[in-house]
Give the backbone structure.
Amino acid sequence: MGRYVIRRLLQFIPTVLGTMFLLHYMTSLAIQFSGNPVRALFGDRTPPPALLQAITERLGYSDPCLSQRGNPCFGLFIDRLQNIFLHFDFGVNLRQREVTDLVADAIPFTLKLLVIAIVFEAVVGIAAGVLAGLRGGSFVDYLVKISTVFIISVPIFVLGVVVREFVGVKFGNILRGQDWIPDLISVGVFTPGFKPDYPFASLLIPGMVLGAVSLATTARLTRTSIMENVRADYVRTAKAKGLTNKRVIGVHTLRNSLIPVITFLGVDIGSAMAGAVVTETIFNVPGIGRLVTMAARGGESSVVVGVVTMLVLVVLLANLLVDLLYAVLDPRIRYE
Amino acid sequence: MSDLTSAGTAVGGAPVGGDGPAADAPGGTSERSASLWADARRQLLRDPVFVIASLYVLMVGSMAAFPKLWTSQDPRACSTDRSRISPSWEHPFGYDILGCDYYSHAIYGARPSMVIAVMATGGIVLFGGLLGLLAGYYGGWVDAVISRVMDIFFSLPFLLGAIVFLTVIKRQNIWTITAVLFLLAWPTIARIIRGSVISSKDLDYVHAAKAVGARNSRLMFRHILPNAIAPMLVYATIVLGSFVAAEATLTFLGVGLQPPAQSWGIMISVHQVYFLEDPWLLLFPCGLLVGTVLSFILMGDALRDALDPKFR
């Protein structure tokens, strides 16, 4: 256990450095091949050279290596690493606001959204998976199988737009026309976009949309792993001892079946963060994801790079924690 | 020794590419002794889901390759006084917000998605497949280096990486989108191939071929690869669908293709606000997109069942 943790921690450092370098090299290459990204801010107008120079300088794009194609810009990379790890500086936006400030303003919304999404997909996904796994070949099983294929094949932005229009606008309008329904539900929950007056209720539907995509995978994973485990010897023993069905399934089967599911949920935090970019844009939630989209649409590459770097660090940390948790949950995992 | 000969016949023509080996396998001579590929082909042709899904994919593919077959209208012939006219017999999808024929836009919109998906998938199959093969076959430090590089690419969430690259490069066209999809997706294929190469490189027929004196390249490409390629084929089919979805998602977020181009993602993102008055503007492109992704996923599932002897 101890050795595994140490090995995993040691592996973590090169992975972080490597991922940061990948991100850095991708942006450097893009700049080297398409020219100064600051020009994008001016559209088709030609900025005064002094202004262009000043903004380029301020956003840190003035390094000469950014004009040599294919140059990996190691000096710039080391500067960036120092800024990030020593000064906790992820860059500034055009109005000189720190990216860390922008993220600090946006993060409560994204966190709430992520919690709703993960809880939703864990509860519904595991319940559906257990039902389908216990009765293989039954109606529920086929329902889960078919609906998961459909959910996987609908891109999240299509799902988001359709849910927003059908549930948020159409169904919401009907609810808002009825007097007896409290505002919390008609205005708060069934809303086409985020409402600052209902900071939690109006995030419910966006969170469910975000969770829906991985919901399918969670259900399938639970289903397969339950199906494997109900045939295990210890489950038969538990049944033979005369334990109640509830206990056999709840304690003996479920606990062992959930190990891969929990791992998946942990790893899924990363993809849920990427999915939040889409969901927050659709439902107008002022979180990190919308920050990224708005910056990307406006060509503010310094903000995009800074926020994504931060998100990538969070994802890496989440993966590390999942791996460590995995070792705690499953005593068979050993690193030799 | 029978393994060696069957491996030889299964190789047949080109080692890479799904249909090649199946076409060369002696099919129909005797029902039971056919090769894996002939068996798989027979099972797939009997599977209605696979047949329907591949017909749909063929349809979308022909839209992409020969849009003229499907429509004689020009998607750029627009007139704003026809803005948002509902579907009619001559114009089955109606007109869009700028008064362009929506049906021809949908037909021409298939091309960028399919071109991007096919090019990026081809790229990751060749590059990821080669790296996976090298890592799995040689093991040792080659494997260590390639696996660490794969870990690094894995830890960059796909959508985030693509947004960064496309924002900074500003030129958002078919080529840059293909490049970023390729760059961020090759490790998955490499990992799959690496796994199946490792599991098949210690089999008897490989040792036999080595004993006969085959060189490394011959061992890799003629003996190991054809028998390790099935999982990659399954994944490549599924990934085609997810690339179609990824292109539309990036376009929707505003970092993919830009409006004068025709694409399903643009159709959805431009018309999402008119959903209440004219829902067909959103439902047609969404339907086409979801149908394509679904077909690829179903084809991949059917292929997996057909190529895995355990399911027989």
